[in-house]
UniProtKB/TrEMBL annotation:
Its main location: membrane. The chain crosses the membrane at residues 12-30, 124-149, 155-172, 179-196. It is a multi-pass membrane protein. It is found in: Cell membrane. This is AzlC family ABC transporter permease. Pfam families: AzlC. The lineage of its organism: Bacteria, Bacillati, Actinomycetota, Actinomycetes, Actinomycetales. Keywords: Cell membrane, Membrane, Transmembrane, Transmembrane helix, Transport. Belongs to the AzlC family. The keyword Transmembrane applies. Coiled coil: none annotated.
Length: 219
């Protein structure tokens, strides 16, 4: 119980931030034709806010498996390094796989902080479980609410666009050449939208990734 209470205090700011976004995703998934239990299952297994929104849009849009795999790779590639670098040695071996699975940007920031060096294995596990449970519960509430709301909820599709706009702004702020990379991203999207609309996401992502790597090496 001591580990649980400590973990709850550690994760309370994350929990407060997760709830509204999780409810929104649940509503969004149902509005796009998902059954409520599919939304909950996605929250349990995928557990990646941005990727979950993308998967719903790709699924309802009839995207190919290659498109889904490419988008998933680029959106969640950073999680590979999260799993390799997060301190999980205090966690019992059987619980380590779940702790790695439940890593998000927020929990990684928490567990990789200097204060987390004193965390016990139980405290780390509870941190992950509390955040994950909050996300799943929020999605369930939103999805169930969406099934009983008679109004048109398709307007919630704007949340995916808004999410990517916010992510793009954060990425540009972190770059030393924001205007250049922003122009390259826009150009890649427009070119593939014109030449091969059905491969816009894959083509623009791959092209932008290659160009940004070259630009990064020349800095």
């Amino acid at each position: 119980m001591k580990s649980f209470r400590s973990a709850f205090e550690d994760t309370s700011p994350i929990i407060v931030g997760y709830l509204p976004l999780a409810v929104t995703f649940g509503l969004f998934a149902v509005s796009q034709g998902f059954h409520w239990w599919w939304a909950v299952l996605t929250a349990m297994c995928v557990y990646s806010g941005a990727l979950e929104f993308i998967l719903v849009a790709l699924y309802t849009g009839g995207a190919s498996l290659a498109t889904v795999a490419t988008a998933s790779f680029f959106v969640s590639f950073r999680h590979i390094f999260y799993g390799l670098s997060v301190p999980i040695s205090p966690v019992k071996p059987l619980a380590r796989l779940y702790v790695i699975h439940a890593l998000t940007d927020e929990t990684y920031a928490l567990l990789s902080s200097p204060a987390a060096k004193t965390f016990t294995g139980a405290r780390i596990f509870w941190c992950q479980l509390l955040c994950h449970s909050t996300w799943v519960a929020g999605v369930a509430v939103g999805a169930l609410a969406g099934t009983y709301i008679s109004g048109d909820l398709t307007w919630l599709a704007f949340t995916l666009t808004a999410l990517f706009v916010c992510m793009s702004i954060d990425a540009l702020k972190a770059s030393s050449q924001p205007w250049l990379l922003g122009a390259i991203a826009l150009a890649c999207s427009l070119i593939f939208l014109w030449l091969a609309p059905e491969y816009t996401m894959i083509g623009s992502l791959l092209t932008y990734a290659c160009i940004s790597l070259i630009v990064g090496k020349t800095e």
